[in-house]
Amino acid sequence: MTMKDAIASFVHDGDTVSLEGFTHLIPTAAGHEIIRQGRRNLTVVRMTADIVVDQLLAGGCVTKLVSSFVGNSSAGSLGELRRRIEHADPEPLAFEEYSHYGMICRYLAGAQRLPFHPLRSYAGSDLPSVNPGIRKVTSPYPGADGEPEQIYVVPPVNPDVTIIHAQRADRSGNTQVWGLTGVQAEAVYAAKKAVVVVEEIVEDEVVRSDPNRTVIPSHAVHAVVACPRGAHPSFAQGYYDRDNAFYRAWSHISKDPARLREWMAEWVYGTRDHAEYVAKQGEEFWAGLAVGEAMSLPVNYGRRL
Amino acid sequence: MTATTTATSSELLSVVASRELAGKRTVFAGIGLPTLAASLAHLTVAPTLEIVYESGVCGAHPSHLPETIADAVLITGAEAVLSMATLFGSVLQGGHIDVGFLGAAQIDRHGNLNSSVIGDWDRPTVRLPGSGGAMEVMANSSEVFVVMRRHDPRSFMAELDFCTSPGPDRALADGITPRGAGVTRVITDLGILARAGAGEELQLVAVHPGVTVDQVRAATGWDLRTADEVGTVEPPTAAELGLLREDVDPGRVYLR
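^ inputs. structure came back:
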């Protein structure tokens, strides 16, 4: 499926959309296509709301954000997000704040269709006072000291669609990821529909030669989109490196609304699709992010004699 | 070699923090000063130290100094790469981390931390990144070290604007017994504050050479207690600085 068709089919105005990828394999190209197609009133669910979220905000796509970290990694700030939250400029942003493990537990509860998930976080934090979704319950079992034990719980999240980026998949959607695997499998299983964007679609034999590397089987995937370099400016282990210079630049681009509009006009609205965005960057640029080989040694799965 | 033995602020904080890791087995560290401190400790006081990164990497053997917790060089050649659910659930909440390193915009006398907002949460003056995994690091590490580049009353506050990551006193007041001791060391550009755990306030235990106790008290937003004997931090040695500059961060990525 093309990215254009996948976004048109699976992302609708008002949807709850999860975009996952913990610093690695961030589905940026999918975010850009959501902006091009002018989606509105989305609730975006993402542990580390970073550049792609700032861009979706700048595209006017998002009314609510559910997240545990709202920053430009360690490279600085997200200008549009800060204007929305600090000054309601150009409009307010509803924000549901969690911690990382709180978000993970929401995906786990969502994936397993549980009513809530307990965790040993939030005790004494001010976060439950600003987020009524975080609640304290009494465990039905006694604690280690034999006394009743209290624990915080978080609610499940079941996005209308989860979009992730991966290194490769076969045509039916068996998805293989290596390096940082993050929370992608849980986010996919939590969702009603899932779109997997990959660097390359490979033959079935490639996937089946190493089934343990499949983190998401095809039964959980509704569309596979081939989109090389679709995780830029984040990285794809073994394919291309992180564009650290762009992360640093984003703090300056997003700080100035006029400069941000220009960037969006040139790189998102000004490109028809991600292939055009890639071509516009130029071969020399991509050569700067190229990585060398560090092959894993094969393992022997064995076969019956 | 003509390297000066005068340490920069980053070098000073890294060296002092590294010494505090003596004898520790596992440390949960973000990129920047915590990584420098942990890497230096690995070469000096804690040769068996294992650094666990928030991205899920354990036992990294990077070919280059990582620029982020998720730098590809941390993954290639690592001993293990874990999913987020395993890292936060089984490793951190499961109690496998001795020392967690955290930073914060604000800290109070009990080592509670704010990394969410300056001002009101609803309409903040400054929206900060938030918890990330800091709350989990605080709740589940045996103890937490905090590195603060600037010791001043805007960061060392009597009342936090917002408590993101609570120490054990606040957890107990909320009816929940925490696993760890919370913040036990705060390393700043003026000296070292310490506390043993629940029920204790941070107190000044050492100052850097040339810094006075009054100076630290004036830079702290509450009435800072001081140890019976406030020591003087031993300046970084030539050997420590040499390792830091030549082996740990030769490109001076973080040693600004």
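Chain A touches chain B through 55 residues (CB under 8 Å). Chain A has a mean pLDDT of 97.
thumbs up if we can close this ticket
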